[in-house]
Write a sequence for this structure.
């Protein structure tokens, strides 16, 4: 697998919907890269989203005039070149917003190779490893209203991350939490087995963001598969004390009275996790707003946090950089935002910071952190040029070697990009290609 890969759009999709690749995103469309994960055999999966809004486009007969919301899921073979070995296009409804709800999907590859897409709230879709077919789904209606009849469905999880030992770190939603009159992500738990088409495993909740939700009822809000201390979660029963309360102790009084929300937890070990918690977003700007990357064990105890970040100078809110990536084999945690690349050890001690305020590291402002490879490389997406880069980092001495490794990786990325421009078709840095027969699948 090449160290730099295009993140292409299938030409068939571009032609069908007449996507103007040269148009700016202010024209009502966008293509962004959300997540990456490795399969047990070393294959790399990348999840992207293509969205376009057109007034009245939900009912348009001509595809050129339609509102579009597509998840693009690409698989790159471990022993392959730069082209995806297979690519799936997942069409999503657009009723609830102009870009639908596909932007909230996240990706996981389960221990048996099954690919899972999880979205709010607890909708989980299972696909075979080759991305040729959907093999199962656990879904519920995400839009519950007090004045409407509601059928809960059969949900599973809003987020899944696989631990080194094959356990599933899951986030599930509850109704009425965080002063919100609908579903929101609230519980963090562990499933010891993976879901299949015919079996939904039990999730054992060990932490909650809000332990005292309001307006829950016994008919709809007692879970049948999320358990805590041997009993179903719901009503007054869930893990306490609330994680939101614990991390709020270091925040100013203003933030303690406002909502918090969960980022995507990541495993450092089978029993140690990084849990991002953020304060409520404001319309007027959020730089300087409170946040915490908490270290939590599988019993719900807060072991500490990732230290060394300043609320304003290192704010993840600028550009919406909320992702953390973990390298369990080496006991490291990484975070990339508009102000720097940060690396910690498993105890939360800051090992290194590479500031984006100086060259050549200012180029990192154009990248998003998608994860870590099994070899410990950083997996980055160049958001404006739609390229995926893997940047090796030193096995030790991050304090002295991380900057040098990133500088070397950025220089190599520039050379690879130049070579790719000669090999691929692109317009305004949007790469397109026509897959061979049997490689493109519409799901």
């Amino acid at each position: 697998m090449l160290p730099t890969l295009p993140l292409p759009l299938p030409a068939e999709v571009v032609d069908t919907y007449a996507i103007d690749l040269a148009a700016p995103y202010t024209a009502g469309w966008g293509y962004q890269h959300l997540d990456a994960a490795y399969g047990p055999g070393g294959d790399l999966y990348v999840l992207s989203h293509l969205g376009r809004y057109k007034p009245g486009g939900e009912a348009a007969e001509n595809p050129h005039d339609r509102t579009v919301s597509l998840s693009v899921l690409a698989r790159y073979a471990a022993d392959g070149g730069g082209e995806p070995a297979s690519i799936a296009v997942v069409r999503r409804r657009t009723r609830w917003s102009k870009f639908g709800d596909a932007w909230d999907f996240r990706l996981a590859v389960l221990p048996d190779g099954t690919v899972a897409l999880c979205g709010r709230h607890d909708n989980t879709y299972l696909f075979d490893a080759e991305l040729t077919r959907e093999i199962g789904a656990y879904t519920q209606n995400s839009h519950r209203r007090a004045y409407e009849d509601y059928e809960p469905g059969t949900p599973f999880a809003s987020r899944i991350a696989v631990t080194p030992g094959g356990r599933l770190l899951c986030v599930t939603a509850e109704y009425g939490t965080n002063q919100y009159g609908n579903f929101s992500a609230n519980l963090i738990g562990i499933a010891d087995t993976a879901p299949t088409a015919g079996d939904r495993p039990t999730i054992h909740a060990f932490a909650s963001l809000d332990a005292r939700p309001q307006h829950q009822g016994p008919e709809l809000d007692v879970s049948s598969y999320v358990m805590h201390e041997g009993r179903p979660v719901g009503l007054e029963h869930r893990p306490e004390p609330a994680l939101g309360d614990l991390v709020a102790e270091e925040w100013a009084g203003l933030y303690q009275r406002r909502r918090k929300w969960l980022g995507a937890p990541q495993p450092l070990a089978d029993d140690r996790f990084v849990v991002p918690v953020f304060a409520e977003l404001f319309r007027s700007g959020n730089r300087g707003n409170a946040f915490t990357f908490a270290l939590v064990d599988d019993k719900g105890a807060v072991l500490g946090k990732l230290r060394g970040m300043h609320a304003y100078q290192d704010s993840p809110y600028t550009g919406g950089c909320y992702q953390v990536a973990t390298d369990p084999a080496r006991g490291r945690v990484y975070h990339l935002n508009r102000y720097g690349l940060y690396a910690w050890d498993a105890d939360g001690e800051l090992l290194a910071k590479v500031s984006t305020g100086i060259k050549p590291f200012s180029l990192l402002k154009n990248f998003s952190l998608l994860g870590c490879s099994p070899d410990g490389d950083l997996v980055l997406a160049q958001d404006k040029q739609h390229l995926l880069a893997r940047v090796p980092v030193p096995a030790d001495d991050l304090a002295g070697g991380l900057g040098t490794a990133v500088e070397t990786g950025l220089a190599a990325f520039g050379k690879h990009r130049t070579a790719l421009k000669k090999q691929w078709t692109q317009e305004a840095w949007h790469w397109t290609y026509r897959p061979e027969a049997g490689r493109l699948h519409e799901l």
